[in-house]
Amino acid sequence: MLSLIYEWDNRAAWIAAANIAVLFFYAVIYAFPNARKVAMQQQRDAIERENRRANERQRTLDNLGIF
Would you give the distance in Å from CA 26 to the centre of its chain? Predict the structure, then answer.
């Protein structure tokens, strides 16, 4: 009986290890690079919004004749 339990535990451990390996490769190949691209795009968007605000502020100052 104990040998049967040992065999099933051993199988379960190998299945768990295989699942972890698959998830690891998924993260390395797809998720991490994709997350990096998304973060870089968000940073570019934030910079663009800041530039737009700065341009609007400068136009307002120009319209008011303030340098």
Answer: 13
Phi, psi of 66 (to 5 degrees): -100, 135
67 Cβ contact partners less than 8 Å away, ≥ 6 residues apart: 61
- The Cα 6–Cα 13 span in angstroms is 10
DSSP secondary structure string for all residues of 2-67 = HHHHHHHHHHHHHHHHHHHHHHHHHIIIIIHHHHHHHHHHHHHHHHHHHHHHHHHHHHHHHHHT--
For 66: left if phi > 0, alpha if psi spans -120 to 50, otherwise beta; the answer is beta
Per-residue pLDDT reduced to its tens digit, 45-55 = 999 999 998 98
- C-beta of residue 67 within 8 angstroms of C-beta of residue 61: yes
What's this model's pTM, rounded to 2 decimal places? 0.53
